[in-house]
Structure formats: structure tokens, C-alpha cells
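In this section we walk through a basic example: taking a raw amino acid sequence and producing a predicted 3D structure, encoded as C-alpha cells. The instruction is simple. Fold the sequence below.
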Amino acid sequence: MCSVQLTDPPSVADPGGRDGDRPSGDGRASTRRGILRASLSVIVGTVLIAVHASFYGNWMIDDAAITFAYSRNLADGFGPVLQPGAEPVEGFSNPVWMALLALGKLLGLFDHGTIFGVPDYVLFPKGLALLCCMAILALVYVGAKRLTPRPALVTLIAGTALAVNPSFVIWCFSGLENSVYALMVTALAVVILCGVDSGTLLTAKIAMSAGALAALAGLSRPDGVIYAAAFPIVVALFTRRGGVPPAIRAVLLSAAGFVVPFGGYLLFRWIEYGRLLPNTAIAKAQPLPAITDIAKAGTVLQYAGWLLVAVAVVCLALVMQKPSKLRAGVVALLVPFALSVIAFCVLQADWMGQLRFATPIWALGALGGAIVIVETLRKARIRGRILLTATLVVATASSISGFHIQGKSYRAVPKTPFCSVVERDARVTNGVADLLKLPGSAKIGVIDLGGMALVSRLQVVDLAGLADRVIADYLSTADFAGVRRYVFDELRPELISFVGTWDTTLGFAQDERFGQEYEVLYRSPRDPSAFGDVGVWVRKDLVRDPAVLAAAQRYVTTETQKVVAANSVAHLRSCGDTLRPGQTPRP
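The resulting C-alpha cell sequence is shown next.
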């Protein structure tokens, strides 16, 4: 795709030896120093990111476990389904991440047991995320080497910026696909930068690489398809009169590089699932973009810190004043960065918090921002350097203070810990299913799906629609009455588990059939801030004997309250060495 030199090449006038093809002793020493600086800058940044990630312990969000379940079943030969034997429904939206997890399981690194005493369902996704972060910083070095004589400094600054950013760290290490998604987008940006800088933008190698990386971004997250526009836009910006035919050829090659892998997956999706969109996109009913969506960019600026962003913008303006190699490279980086901001603004607000969809913005912003700040400092006069440095210190301190507050608050009350769902929902309902002697064909309707899909011995019905085709169709039009008809008249699940206010949102609490057909086994006091805001119901025809009902209520209440009492640290611990269907609460 593109290459980078760690040191300046030997002078033509002084080839460095009689043979003219070997570096001199000074050249070899310079090469070693360059390699050492490059390696240290990447390693230090990676270590800082890892240290911040450790602050959140073993926490992973429950939605990540949905992908875990699909990867387990794919690797075990059941196909990409939620549970063995389940109807094929694409309840995940990150095929690249799912495939990597499935590969880890095939290699014995994921979903098998422990590694160094740590459950591999924790260690492997987080370790893979750390490798992706390291690769991002390596790409930062490659890109920076093209535009500044201080690439190691740029990489160190970018790595530190990413390491102190809770939004970046939280979501890269949440078990979700953010790290690999940011890696693909960063790789695309650097490939385009290399093409612009070296004058090889229109070559088949750069064009097809850009298309393929855009496809991988689109297969990491649905909104990643927007990056297919990055290469054509950059080509349009740098094409001069008379260069239109080769530009068109390059754009067509890039389109081919995108269409072959992405179109291939669309064909698979249609054959396997009968849809062109993932079921998750249908259930969430993403609205069409509106001009007011652009206001969402303000949340990113506020999170990063207005003063720090203002400093970066001033440095960018200074860099863009005169035509130069640096300006051309920065323009090449601005295109994918702008697309990442557009993608963030278009997506509807996410309940998980901490700007989950902003991860590519942070990666590209760290790369571009570090370059323009370092180059502005390097070229400024003494007074300018002093003023800029002082302003940077104040701006950085302000941003770090905000980051500290964000990270600390999220650590205290993270969103839907994966292990909370495993222990509170899956294992407890397995236990009551055993008590009621329910067969494996019995169904349970749930909202938090990930931990249930991995551990429940019952057939899981996703009442939130991510992994249920019929419910997704109803939710796409906000037809909650249709959801209830489908549940009460067709599915008739033996157990139902609601969290938070979902019973009210879907209208179950207001529907008289719910009270007529289901008996409550446990309902916690309403407390949206607590992990224990949960309710469990059983179909009345299964507990006609009052003694059986009382025993089931005692069991669910006792076991749920045990888990809730321990959930204040649920995000800091794992939930056992292995996760298998049928597990019940541990003694």
C-alpha cells in the first residue's frame, strides 16, 4: 500500500560505501535510532492505552456478547446464528469482528477457558483490541513520516491523546468492534495520504487498497460504507485538467475493490438471511438524515474540549495558508475525518453513552491534530512557540480534567455489564427453568440478549428485535401492539424477563393480557441507576400449584437479590472461567 523510511536516505553524492548500495556506519546507526524511536513511540502509546483500559476492569457491554454468541456458533459448525438450531437472523452488525472472534475460538484462544488465569472471553477481545490500537499507532507513525521530520513525536502525542480519552478507550475495550473499525478507517486514511504524498494516488495498488479498506470498514460497522466515498473525493480534489481519464480509471478500480468484498457479503446476507440490511438496522429504524443532525458535532467538540479543539483548528489554518506537501497531506486526511464526523451526526443518538460512534473521529483527529500542532510549533518563532505551548498546556489540562470526570463516572455506573446479565438473568432463569422442569424447547422473552444467548438453556426471544425478524419489522414502524400480539398469540414464551422500563415502553405493563396470562416471579423496585432493575414473569398455566409458584418466586427473588448485591462491582470482575448454556447461580 505505501512504504515508509525510518531515516533519511543516503545522499546520492555520498552513497555510503564503495558498492554504493550499503549504508555507512553512521547510516546504520541512524537507521537503528529511527527504528528505536518509532518502536518506542508506538509501544509507549499502547501501554498508556492499556493502563487506561485496565481502569474499567473486566467490564464489557452485554451487546458485545451477542457477537460472541454468533462467533461461537459459527466456529462450532452451527452457522452464524444466535443459538444452535435457531432461525438464521443477522442479529449482529459487525461481520469482520465476528469473524475474528470465531477465528480466535477455532485457534483455542476464545470461549474455551482461561489464559494466565483470566477467562479468555475477557482476555481475547480485549487483547485483540489492544493489538488494533497498536496497529493504529503504527499507522500514525507511517502517515506522520510522510509529513513531518518528527513522526515519533507525533505518534507519542497521538497515542497519549487516545490513551486519555475515555470515549476511545471505553469503546475499544467494550468487547464491541470499535477498535477494528477505527483501525480500518485509519488504514484507509494513511493509504490515501501515502498516495497523495508520493504521487501514486491513481495507481491500481492505491485505488484498490482504498476500496478494499473501505469495504472492511463497512463490514465492521454499517455506517462504515460512507468511507467508500473517501478515495473518489480525494481524487476529485487533486485531479487537474487533462488528468480526468486516469482519475476515472482509478475511481473505478477503487469501486471494484469495494464492491467485490462488500457485494460478496451482501450476496451472502441475502442468501442466508433474506435481507439486504442487517436485522439490527431494521429494528433500530435509523431515520433519514436531517439538517439539524449537524448539531451533534457539537457534542464531540464539547467532549474533546473546546479550547483544545480551537488550538488544533488555529494550527490547521496556519498549515493551510500556503501550498505545500504538508497542506496536500493534511487535505488527504481531512476527507476521511470529515466523513467520520458526518457518519456520527447522521446516526441516531446511542443509549450506551460516551459517544460510542465517535471512535474513528478520535483516531483520525489524533493523527491530524498531532501533525498540525507539531509542525506549527516546529516552524514558529520563539515567541510563537512560547504562546502556543502555554495555550496547549492550559487546553490540555482542561480536556484531561473533563476526561477524568467522564471516565470516573462511567466506571462507577457502566452500561449493562455483560456479566451482570449472565448472572442476574441467564443463570437465575436457568435455575427457575430447572425448578419448573421446563424442556429445552421452552422460550424466554428477553431484552438484554448477549449473556442470555451464551448461557441460557432456553430458546431466547429477543423482545428488542435485534435477533428476531418479526419483532424487528414491528419495531421499525413503532407497532408495539403488533409486538404484543405476536408474543401473546404466537410465541407464548414460558418466561419473560424485562429490564428497566421496557415493559412500559413496549406496552406490556398496560396490556391486560400480560396480567391475565403471566404471573410475576420477581419485580425489583424501580431504580434506573441500579443493575438490579429487572422483572421476571412466568406463564400462569405452568404454576397453577400455589406451592410451585411460591417456590419459584422464592428462588428468583433470593438469587436475583444476591446478584444485585454484588453488582456494584460487576464491571470489575468476570463471571466464571467458562460460559456454557444451562449454567445456574454459583454457590
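Looking at the output, two observations stand out. Residues 26-412 form one domain. The chain has a mean pLDDT of 92. In the next section we compare this with other chains.
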